[in-house]
Write a structure and sequence with these properties.
The complex is a heterotetramer, with two copies of chain A (about 325 residues) and two copies of chain B (about 350 residues).
Chain A: E1 2-6, H1 7-21, E2 25-29, H2 45-53, E3 54-56, H3 61-72, E4 77-84, H4 92-98, H5 102-105, E5 115-120, H6 135-139, E6 145-147, H7 152-164, E7 169-174, E8 181-185, E9 197-200, E10 205-209, H8 213-226, E11 231-235, E12 238-240, H9 244-254, E13 257-264, H10 269-280, E14 290-294, H11 303-309, H12 313-324
Helix pairs in contact in A: 1-7, 3-4, 8-12, 9-10
Chain B: H1 3-6, H2 15-42, H3 57-66, E1 72-76, H4 80-85, H5 90-97, E2 121-125, H6 131-145, E3 151-156, H7 163-174, E4 179-185, E5 216-219, H8 223-238, E6 244-249, H9 267-274, H10 278-288, H11 293-316
Parallel strand pairs in B: 1-2, 1-3, 3-4, 4-6, 5-6
Helix pairs in contact in B: 2-3, 2-10, 2-11, 3-8, 5-11, 6-7
Classes of the chains: A alpha/beta (about 325), B alpha/beta (about 350).
The complex binds thiamine diphosphate (2 copies) and magnesium ion (MG) (2 copies).
Chain lengths: ~325, ~350, ~350, ~325
């Protein structure tokens, strides 16, 4: 049996599954308990697990992640919500300088089994300070695992895997996907981190996408079929650990690569994928490696502008045509 | 109390009366604008999000009236009121809410980032706490330039628990900056009551002594009280007396943002605060003081007419040209990152 | 005053005497270790940097003695003293300073990141303020697990002006956490006097009320006074009485770090504080209380011998194997970021 | 006439030159005034320009950059020091979310002529929290200009250009270079941002480097000559604006690329250079595009380890040999 649920509800289901599974899982954040989250993605958890395990915090992002870090090193498995990924900047020292380095600096004395959940990306007309796609910020930091699901089923399987993982994980929920629906099987779902999935098979070009860019890449692949181009679409699902095997194998077959990311142009994760391919698949390549990204500008607020500058199906189609011809 | 009880016969207008009428006009204009903004949001014309100051108008009105034309305002995503209170034309504000090229930020900022430098509105900031240190910077520059300008920085109760608040207040005092920090304490953050996450009863006032500042609390629903405390703090800052931290008690009539009905708030609490709605209570006070009701009605009608006109202009305006997305990243007007 | 004046005839040892001797032993061991660390830094054996607690030993000693074996210590880059005070073997600490495989962190942490989880030393943090929120987390976990453990977090005067301090203190109070925050006020940050950049006279104590906490100042050079205040605060936290913020007044004998001679400090100030050096003053107090000098001499000799031995072991130890650089990024022991 | 000065002294000379040149230039930071900076790179400025223009601050990085931002939008040209680039994490909201977006969000109403100076990179055995090379963090943010000089002359010319620039600039001083000496001409020096320099000419492979990696790349090029490989070395000097013309022109001649960066492996600036070349020079390439980076680990403290994992001359030589053969 399976049911159709939203990406939003999948978050609550995954958290409930894991809090049920492991009494050491605690969940904190701003407006997450009584209000069920500003995106309503954590509704019902307070009622089900009580105020000890599901707690509202002050507007103190450093205090939130500090609490998670200190608790993780002393026996809890905290999940901390940072409401919008833009706010990771207000606690970036914890994310980039404390949490990822502690195990290494202590040569393994400290373990940090924690998850930072955050709503990432644009498309909701929230303007430049509430719409950034910053998964590349996290990918650049040694010691962080980075996950970004594209559908409700993966939200459950990957969030569960992140919570059970012994290392710190930054879990990016694409806020434009919260209302999207998908089939989810009944019962416990737990995936493995670091496994990409080929969501559309093809032989002419490999399109690598993540999160909100996956449905767009698939739509582009379908359009490309009509144009006589057979595109393979890979949903990375995780940036760290990175499933380079799947990407490299595919590109060696198709000889061409297009990456599709919501990150602004410079130093996005697409550049990392291109660089790996440019070094490891060089002799198999038949065309320039191309990135489709948001331009290197802050995201404008007006709907007309926002729609025009996030990577669109048509921009992906054009890019694929260009590398194939 | 009903306004009629209080009515007395009209009389000659004093300076104080003119100030009061100015304050009344401002609260009414903001009230009328915010009610329209809410309607347009519900109609889907205001996209994304929108944070209203319904019920909190007296703070913007009182400070707006006390500020000098060249003083600086720093506010938050809940900034329509403060932007209007400095004299920013309604059409430009409404245009920005609707994402039109005619908006004060050409549609690139949106409801949370209203800015009008020519009116001293140095920006609306959507990251909690971020603008407190920035307001210090404007005050530091005014001090360095000897311009006599003052920076006024508005923020909410929930903002008192973030680190930037602490860093900003300490530096303001150490550098004796001409800055006035105004905490609009509406008792709630988004959906959580401030009392549940704060170590002290008065989130701003009980922290003042930690920065060597006087503890100041004012009724944020009373335009006269706000105007008085604002005048004192701003004059002191201008005279080189350094920063102030003011906690203004108030309440929002609606939810935090967008379509939030605010159901997490006890009915009695909402009802009690509705009794203290700044618009009718101030109207009653003015009538009680013998101001001719015709003057108030005229103000109300003018506000309606201006909001209608601003709405029409905004609705009629075009969305930004797509090329606008590539302008004003850099001072050269463009967005190129390569040579 | 000279110690002899005070001497009285030796007598039977009381419990209090044993506590005092324990405190004396700790300050002497730390003093001896830090003097050696300084010498090894000047010899180029300690690489990078090193921040000593010379003159500040009484704080680490007093708290170390008041803590339960399973309590948590969170300290800063100036953490040799706190790491030793929890019983971490000197050889492992010295090995870490010298960047040897035998170091408590295998040479990967260095002087600023001493950690010994088995001794409750949960880390030395080199980013100002970062560990205050982290200490809250350990206290929250102790509270959730009902373990009765307490987290003690040490930091400097300059740290009271960074945002993380504010966020941590507020949350600790709101969640009633079993955590004790200890501000080691040595009057200086790196080279700048705390008074020049702080809005209040007592950087920690004058902020306590902003978090609903009691204002507590203790003589940080008096092991007995520190031990007393530490015991009270830790017991209260363990009993569910919530957090404390303690300001311990002290002074560093040397500079901030490395070879800094600390010349930015007035001579008279340095001289006055040298009079209050915790080692000789406490020694004099013990003799005055009638403790047999032979016991003190034995402690001093043992400390010298232990530091000599630790130094020898560290000097003799090998540098980390190059492969060690690729271990312990992840819980699986490795560092691979790809499948 | 020219003199030999250190990279460290060049910083103070550049600041003095610009404070002399423009009375609206102010300088703030921790221990920068009375103490002359913890790296002694700002000695003498307080004495020369007085306490109004050269100010010590509390340990409050957000307050420091907030002060700079607010002052820049109201008529000053502030230079703010963030002592170590690692500490940018404690004020990352100002660096990544406020300062770079203000002009754009206000459609040009706000100008921010400010410079953030910071000591970047490893090599001093300071451990994982005081040794990061984070110029890639800044490059990933639309609205920031990013500069990183490799020698004393460029410190002066580029810092002067950064201070005169009307946009916000993050100026990375490589702390391992402070004691290094170089020839500096007398008189005012002001360069242009966004101009790379070819510091060693060659025809077989293009080596692109920055800051502390430049001297190592040049040493490698000299060693490669002995091995019969002619390497061209480009000192980027700025990451934004990026001199892609110089890089692309060189790679089109040499057909091969090696980037050398201190950034950890994933999403460093080298990946951006590789991606630009892989798209724009594809048909000219004769070998895999290769990056020499620090491994994707926090930097260890022990000298033996630190030396082994920052990119070394021998690793650059090997990489170049591999792509050429
Ligand atoms: C750093 C940061 N954390 C969280 C948020 C999300 N957020 C937006 S408004 C808000 C509540 C703010 O409450 P308050 O300061 O009382 O202002 P009010 O909205 O009541 O005027 C929160 C948590 C944010 N914008 N920035
Ligand atoms: C966020 C941050 N800013 C600046 C520094 C550089 N720094 C290291 S120690 C120090 C002085 C700290 O003074 P205090 O808190 O009094 O501690 P003390 O060294 O006196 O024990 C500074 C500014 C840092 N490590 N982290
Ligand atoms: Mg509020
Ligand atoms: Mg100090």
């Amino acid at each position: 049996m399976a049911e159709l649920i939203t990406y939003r509800d999948a978050v609550a289901r995954a958290l409930a599954q894991e809090m049920e599974h492991d009494p050491s899982v605690y969940f904190i954040g701003e407006d997450v308990a009584a209000a069920g989250g500003v995106f309503k993605a954590t509704k019902g958890l307070l009622e089900e697990f009580g105020p000890e395990r599901v707690r509202d915090t002050p507007i103190s992002e450093e205090a939130i992640l500090g609490a998670a870090m200190g608790a993780a090193m002393t026996g809890l498995r905290p999940v901390a919500e940072i409401m919008f990924s833009d706010f990771l900047a207000t606690c970036w020292d914890l994310v980039a300088v404390e949490i990822p380095k502690s195990r290494y600096m202590t040569d393994g004395q400290v373990s940090l089994p924690l998850v930072i959940r955050t709503a990432n990306g644009g498309g909701l007309r929230f303007g430049a300070q509430h719409s950034q796609a910053v998964e590349n910020w996290a990918m650049a930091i040694p010691g962080l695992k980075v996950v970004a699901p594209s559908n409700p089923r993966d939200v459950i399987g990957l969030l569960a895997a992140a919570i059970r993982d012994p290392d710190p994980v930054v879990f990016f929920e694409q806020k434009s996907l919260y209302p999207s629906k998908g089939e989810v099987p009944d019962g416990e779902i737990v995936d493995t981190l670091g496994v990409a999935s080929t969501v559309h098979s093809g032989s002419d070009v490999t399109i690598v996408a993540l999160a909100s860019m996956v449905p767009r890449a698939v739509a582009a692949a379908e359009e490309l079929e009509g144009l006589g181009i057979s595109a393979e679409v890979i949903d990375l699902r995780c940036l760290v650990p990175l499933d380079t095997a799947t990407v490299v194998e595919s590109v060696k077959r198709t000889s061409r690569l297009v990456t599709v990311e919501e990150n602004p142009r410079l130093c996005g994760w697409g550049a990392e994928i291109v660089s790996i391919v440019a070094e490891e698949c060089f002799w198999h390549l038949d065309g320039p490696l191309t990135r489709v990204t948001t331009p290197h500008i802050p995201l404008p607020s007006a709907d007309a502008l926002e729609d025009a500058f996030l990577p669109s199906v048509s921009r992906i189609v054009e890019a694929a045509q260009k590398v194939v011809q | 109390m009903s306004t009629t009880e209080l009515e007395t016969t009209p009389r000659e207008m004093s300076d104080a009366d003119h100030t009061s009428l100015g304050l009344y006009e401002q609260v009414v204009r903001i009230r009328t604008f915010e009610e329209r903004a809410y309607r347009l949001f519900m109609e889907g014309l205001v996209k994304g999000t929108s944070h209203l100051s319904l019920g909190m108008e007296a703070i913007a009105a009182g400070f707006g009236a006390a500020m000098r034309r060249d003083d600086y305002t720093f506010c938050t995503y809940r900034g329509h009121a403060h932007t209007l209170a400095r004299g920013t034309p309604m059409a430009g504000v409404m245009g920005e809410l609707l994402g039109r090229a005619s908006g004060v930020c050409g549609g690139k900022g949106g409801s949370m980032h209203l800015t009008s430098v020519e009116h001293g509105v140095m920006g609306s900031y959507a990251i909690i706490g971020a603008h407190l240190p920035i307001a210090n910077g404007a005050a530091w520059s005014a001090q360095a330039r000897g311009s006599g300008q003052v920076a006024v920085c508005f923020f909410g109760d929930g903002t008192t628990n973030i680190g930037a608040f602490h860093e900003a207040l300490n530096l303001a005092k150490v550098w004796n900056l001409p800055v006035v920090f105004v905490c609009e304490n509406n008792l709630y953050m988004e959906y959580t009551a401030i009392g549940e996450v704060t170590a002290v009863e008065h989130p701003a006032a009980d922290r003042a002594s930690a920065y060597g500042l006087e503890s100041i609390i004012v009724d944020g629903n009373d335009p006269d009280a706000v105007y008085a405390v604002a005048t004192t703090a701003i004059d002191r800052a201008r005279a080189g007396g350094g920063p102030s931290l003011i906690e203004a008690k108030t309440y929002r009539h609606g939810g935090h943002s967008r379509a939030d009905p605010g159901q997490y708030r006890p009915e009695e609490e909402v009802a009690a605060w509705m009794q203290r709605d700044p618009v009718p209570t101030y109207r009653a006070r003015l009538l009680g003081a013998g101001i001719d009701e015709a003057l108030l009605t005229a103000i109300e009608q003018r506000a309606q007419a201006d909001v209608d006109a601003a709405t029409e202009q905004a609705r009629a305006a075009l969305p930004p040209d797509l090329q606008a997305a590539y302008t004003n990243v850099w001072a050269d007007g463009g967005s190129s990152w390569r040579n």
